Amino acid sequence: MSMTFEALCTSLESKPPVRLQVQDLSVTYSTSKGPVRAVSQINFDVEPGTNFGLVGESGCGKSTVVKSLMRLLPDSAKVGGKVLLDGKDVLAMDRKALAAVRWTQIALVTQSAMNSLDPVFTVGDQIVESIRAHVDVSHAVAWARAEQMFAMVGLPAERLREYPHQFSGGMRQRAVIAMAFSLNAGLLLADEPTTALDPIMQDQIMSRIRDIQQRLHRSMVLVTHDIAVVSETCETVAIMYAGRIVEMGPTRDVLNKAYHPYTMGLQNAFPRIRAKGESKPPLISISGGLPDLLHPPKGCRFEPRCPFSTERCRAEDPELRPVGTVMAACHHIDRAEEFRRAALKAETWRVEEDVQ
Amino acid sequence: MRAYILRRLLQSMLVVFVVTTIMFFMFRVMPADPTTMFLEGGMTEEARQVLLEEWGLNGTLWEQYVRYMGNLLTGDFGNSFFYRKPAWDVLWPFIINTLWIAVPGLLLGAVIGSGLGMIVGWAPRGGKVERSGILLATIIRGAPSFVVGIMLLAIFSSWLNWVPGYGMGDPQGATGLMRYLNWDFAHHLILPLCAVIIFFIPENLLLMRSGVVEARTEDYIELVRAKGVSEGRVAWHAGRNSMLPLITWLFPALAETIAGIVVVEIVFSWPGVGRELVLAVVRQDYPVAQAAFFLMSIMIVLANLAADLTYSKLDPRVVYK
Amino acid sequence: MSQSEMYRAPRGLRFLAPMLSTFRLLLRDRFAFWGLTIFALFILVAMIAPWIAPYDPFAPMMTESGRLIRLAPPSAEHWLGTTAFGNDVFSQLVMGSRVALRVGLVAAIAVGFISTLVGVISGYFGGIIDDILMRMTDVALSIPTLPFAIVAVGLLGPSIDNIILVITLLFWRNGARIIRSVVLTERERVFVKWARAAGASHLHIILRHILPNILRVVFLWVTMSVAFAVLTEASLSFLGLGDPSITSWGQMLNTAFASGALRTAWWWVAPPSLMLITLISSLYLIGRAYEEQTNPRLRERT
Known about the structure:
The complex is a heterotrimer. By secondary structure, chain A is α/β, with parallel strands linked by helices. Chain A has helices at residues 5-13, 62-69, 95-101, 123-132, 139-152, 169-180, 199-216, 227-233, 251-256, 261-268, 311-315, 336-343, 351-355, and strands spanning 20-31, 34-46, 51-55, 77-85, 88-89, 106-109, 187-191, 219-224, 236-241, 244-250, 321-323, 326-328. In chain A, the strands form two sheets. In chain A, strands 6-7-8-3-9-10-12-11 form an eight-stranded mixed beta sheet, with helices on both faces. The longest helix of chain A is centred in the middle third of the chain and has 18 residues, at 199-216. Chain B folds into two domains: 2-73, no CATH class; 87-314, MetI-like fold (Orthogonal Bundle), CATH 1.10.3720.10. Chain B contains 13 helices and no strands. In chain B, helix 1 packs antiparallel against helix 4 (61-73). Chains in contact: A-B, A-C, B-C.
């Protein structure tokens, strides 16, 4: 006997948020030129009902982390370490257990709104599919749930019968979000949910996600390159660089009192929320690019781009160490105060070009 | 939508008209004179003229053309030189026979082929299933349909003696639909039908496989997988999307694939339009040959039209104006 | 699209560079390697066929007592036995490779030439010329191939030249379509525009800038056309519309089939069947590998 709509909603609403613990997660892609370590030995915890931000520039491995949490990487990627969902290791699960965990425990909002929906099925059918894959309900009940989810993200129910191409970019992304919440999964992975959208739409979508999160209290991992979004949304943040976490801690602390030069540089690259009367600081970008992960540098991975690098940085790879409320991977944590002041000046970041 | 169909129909008619014209002039420009077949019998000049008139061969080429096209519009394909009766009466029983092997053969070939293509496309890249699947499909694709037919005949008819290898049987006294709905007919049908199916499988398989391999990398497939549905269900999403390129490629290729059916009919002596076309050419029975050719062109044009309409059904993005 | 692309326009000997790189691309694929090897073997056999074939393919084999050796199974004298008419199967098979390749290569080169001509003119000049040529192609695409070949060869007479002519008439159409679409993209390239602005003649632009860059596609289409041509010739011969003065594989099967030797003389039926399958599949393997290597979405990512 399949469930009624009321029974479905009750059972979904009583779901607790999930605790996520990531331990020593490494991802290695085998390529024709040799193994590439896209993610090396990262650790972080997401407390139930909190939002965790993962920040870094494109190519730093943050999307790879998200995909490995759901085991969505291609076979050519070797994943090591542990991904514990309320203590159960996702990476060690068999096919059946994995299928059962997906969407009921972890749901995903993908990066490109344009291509994440199958073009030849109606949006409603795709939401219904995600529900009926896990709970024994009739099509009508699943459809009613889809309507409820559409209402939650602010889309009219009749549009469930339409195809993705009839939706605008923002509507598509809202539909994807509706789908992600369809089973009220304990953990939501949002992989750059707003990148493909225009700025106004980005804002709308993010505040929509925040609203829903406040109501439903899910755990969330939010991947983005936008520090401002993280500061508005997440309690905890981790900054990633070249496959590693270089700084992690309570969002306010990390952003106000960064210990890693990369975090300082990243802040400069985004328009800051200014105090009243403060003059507009210039936007400064970090010159150079990510290191070649086929042949990673021996010392600190950020060293080639770091304006404060020393002999020690070239020779020795720094470990992630606790400093106050945060953790940072830099040899010169003690000089952080001095760095922070220098980092505000544009000249500091042009060091490299001068040398050349 | 209706306007679109109407326009496509008009286009198709134009194509058929041009093809028919080409055919007409090809037959008339050739030096062969059908009456020479009967000349040895000591035919008088008057009798010859009567025959020419009966066959529509009197008057200038232009007059003949106008008359031929006019008759065509009323469904008159002229009289067969060989059977001495209207070409249409000769051909039309053969059409049904051809459809008996062509339609189920095409559909089953497409279903089996694309099903296998989905499996091969979904198999790990560079793995055993993929490599052997591609190799086998390419070899079967490289086997001319008469070779496949001869092999089937040799194995199942000559060697194992399971099924007859000739014709379509002759049910005594059966009429109408009962001529086809009996065990004997099915027995005769099975081998030629298999040959047609085998002929259609590899092309479908390879196209479907390419489509699935391309679809595998799409973002929506990742999201479908993330939803935790069964792997078969994920493959279905990839397959369903790959049907679109399959249809665009496959139906226009019908002009070529119809060749397979002609040859199969010959190998199994299946009395269809294709076999009759070959016989008519050998007998220099032009009206029948022309009519058979005309029918095949119509089949291709209709199949292309069907492809367009199927496509619009399968792809919600297509809007016809 | 920067200035550097200007210098990519090939000059002199670099004309053949795309062909060579295509070749190198193909050798990377194991299937294509075997396809190329098998095809090369066929060409070799066809070239030295008269020296390999032990007997005249049409000569009746006699025993010493003067009796016809009919349907003899394989033996030391007749490696693949004899036919119902006492001909040596092995000799017919070897000589048949010449027919297959002659038809295949001549027709494919002719097809390649016409497709390129139509495709380049249509794609390069566009406008009304393009319209007319493409409508012609549309009509040609609605012609059922084998039925047309049957009728045309039936009317023209079954000679090998007529068969080649008919095959050429049939297969230019798809090639013209494909080549036209490639020319359309080439035409928009920076160096073509530069050449135009510099006042180069159309002929010069086509020969120097367009043609070298579409050679790969032409090469692929010629390869596939060899396969289509061999298949069509074999089908026509099997239907009894082949050139009666030569032995082709399709014809061998036709005679074997017509004389009802299917049940008994496997040595007469199997070899030409195998030859046809091997030759045509080897060409398809080359064509498939080409598509796989040039389509980035199909290429294996390792």
